[in-house]
Amino acid sequence: MPGMAIESPPIDTRVRCTWPGTDPLNLEHHDVEWGFPSRDRRHLYELLTLEGAQAGLSWTTILRKRDGYREAFAGFEPERVAAFGPDDVDRLMLDAGIVRNRAKIEATIDNARAILALESGGTGFVDHLWSFVGGRPIQNRFQTMGEVPAETDESKAMSKDLKARGFRFVGPTILYAFMESAGLVNDHTMDCYRHPEVAALA
Question: What's the predicted TM-score (pTM) here?
Answer without folding.
Answer: 0.93
